[in-house]
Specification:
The complex is a heterodimer.
Chain A: H1 6-20, H2 22-52, H3 57-61, H4 64-67, H5 71-87, H6 89-104, H7 109-123, H8 127-131, H9 154-181, H10 190-215, H11 219-232, H12 239-254, H13 269-281, H14 293-300, H15 309-319, H16 323-337, H17 342-347, H18 354-376, H19 393-400, H20 405-437
Helix pairs in contact in A: 2-5, 2-6, 2-16, 6-7, 6-9, 7-9, 7-10, 9-10, 12-18, 14-19, 15-16, 15-20, 18-20, 19-20
Chain B: H1 2-36, E1 44-47, H2 58-68, E2 74-79, E3 85-89, E4 99-104, H3 111-132, E5 136-142, H4 144-155, E6 164-171, H5 187-194, E7 204-211, H6 222-226, H7 229-232, E8 238-245, H8 258-268, H9 275-284, E9 285-289
Parallel strand pairs in B: 1-4, 1-5, 2-4, 5-6, 6-7, 7-8
Antiparallel strand pairs in B: 2-3, 8-9
Helix pairs in contact in B: 3-4
Classes of the chains: A mainly alpha, B alpha/beta.
Keywords (chain A): Cell membrane, Membrane, Sugar transport, Transmembrane, Transmembrane helix, Transport
Transmembrane segments (chain A): 33-52, 77-102, 109-127, 154-175, 196-215, 299-318, 355-377, 405-425
GO molecular function (chain A): protein-N(PI)-phosphohistidine-sugar phosphotransferase activity
Chain lengths: 439, 297
Amino acid sequence: MTGKRQPLRGLWRFNQRIEQWRAMRAIKEAFRVAYPFILVMTLIDVIGQSLLTNNGFFFQIYHVGSWLPGLDLWRQLFQVISLVINGIVAVMVAFTTGHYLARTYRGDALAVGVMSALAFLTLNVNYEALNTPTRGNGDAIPQFMENNLGPQGIFLAVVVGLVVGWFGCHLMGWLGKWALKHPQWGQLSWTSRVAWPLLIVLAITTGLGYGLSWLNDGGLNGLVYQGLNAMVTNPGHQGVMILAVTAINNGLWWLGLIGPVSLAGNSSVTSLQNLAYAVQHGSGWHAPNPVTLHTLGDAYANFGGAGMTLALLLAIWLGSKQASYRRVANQTFLPNLVNLNEPTLLGLPLLFNPILLIPFIVAPAVNIIVAWCAITWKLVPPIVYPVPRTTPGPLIAYLGTGGDWRALLLSLICLALSVAIYLPFVRLGNLAGGEDHAA
Amino acid sequence: MRRNWWRWGLGVLVVLAIFFPSTAWMHQRITQYKTNYKTPLNPTIMVPGSSASQNRFDSLITQLRQETKVAHSVLKVKVAENGQLSYTGSIRRGDNQPFIVIAFENNHDGYANINKQARWLNVAFKDLVKTYHFNHFSAMGHSNGGLILSLFLEKYFAQTKHVAIDRLMTIATPYNMESNSTTEQTVMLKELIAGRKQLPKQLTVYSVAGTENYSSDGTVPANSVNQGKYVFQNQVAHYTQITVTGDNTTHSDLPQNKQIVLLIRQYLLHENLPAKDRAQNQADTKRRSVTDETGLP
């Protein structure tokens, strides 16, 4: 190792130490188990969202609506599958985290896993629905806060899984010891060894969830999201603010808080003003709002989804010797092409991975700076025409500017820059192959 | 090595298969945006009849301002014989429904003069579009003003690309000049009928007639107004004839007539009239839609 590589070396050692932590191992294991399910769901979503829905990218460019027979039937079929898996990803993560942690404590892994999944669900019960089962207009209120059970609930699921995994295991252990000390109460059956801790855990989480329902409507997750939203919803026109918001947003993604800022803000007021201008004047040059989260972040810093994961995949193809990384890159390339990167985040895993956190935040930030310079120096026009959310990243700017080749060039430069930023960190992962696993 | 060639070839093919259709799609979408886009500025162009100046509609505008509680700003344009324009008033910033009155220095009656006035109207119109960048508008013409507007739409409007007319209301416009005949066509009517294919297909036309007695508003014969159907019917998207009777229905009073002011608000400015105004309007006017001829008296 040369001296220049020294800080990376330090990062590597830090990563090694963290990986020894029981919690980190549990999280990694939970994601490993959840990954194939999420991969399947996302591959189905890729077809559903980009090929079958009205505003899907491939639906639009290949005019699928005009030649595919039985379109509605196809849509419904794909929707059903995506709904089922997408709807309960977080529950699955809560289960697998609790399950693995209990196994490391040599506890009853299955029981604890189910316990943490139930605890996670109790935190997301819609308490409003219990008081008034129907809304004013007669619609039934869903009994769970369904949004929180999908990908955006992963962070809470991890936390619940860890806490319940630890607490449930110890509770069951103490109960066993207590029964041994007090034989006069009789032999403790497996049922009661599970039932009593379950009661206690549910009592605590129900109390917590009920208390939170007084605070706001969205449960614990809703509370976190509301706070973050208030902070980052309106970054305005300042490059620095946009930079900070994107960095914070990507940091939250890394924690599993997926999507507090909807970066695909096609319909915001500033975008509409830009569109109106472009339609009248024929191009986006001198549009009224050249620098917004949309014109910088969506156009140049979101290839593959948050954190430029499309560049990460290219970096893995170019520089990784780890078989698991290469496999995940191959499997998740298609979803990344249409900006659905959840399986990449869970599969590598990128979430809670201290090495990849740095490029995950730095690469989009650098792209935003580059795009900001290019737009303020009038080298490229800002994007003005709306594009589908599933448009392949490098094409967003080209299509959004109405076919400006300079924007396409800038997109490719941004992609190359991001690959270059990811590459050393991906290569760092090769060390794992050399030292521990001998792949 | 050979397998690598395959892979590269396939990759390039996939990129091309995405790139070219998406480019084509993009161009299609952009034209779509452009055709569907309407500027917030949506002026109403008013053209007075013969012998009237650019101040002809002052009392109408005062009434409209009072009733609609919207301070429509007014821009008045006078076109000299040599095509020179003189502006008075202005379009207030932020007012998206201004009135633009276009009048002519030579405001005399007669077939030749009306044709000249249509040409002058075109000069003024082009200048307005260039200055204010609106891409759609409505128009209202009183008496011969309606003829000027119709001639303009047939002969000159196509010169201005990317501008659409939404609605046209003519008030007591004598499409067959002074003739009371239902069979004889004057030169003016013949010219309008000959050019009717050039009328914008999306246009909605309202032709309002006033009658003092059963045949005339004192100046223009009701039959002459009715001949408008030979120009517009089956040419524009909708053509509706409306006859107003009662007080204030002499030819020159019509623009200030209470019922006609309501019609302007309802049909031309597309206001949501309060229920009481609407009821009053329906009680006092006999509406005759050409599409519903059985209702004719």
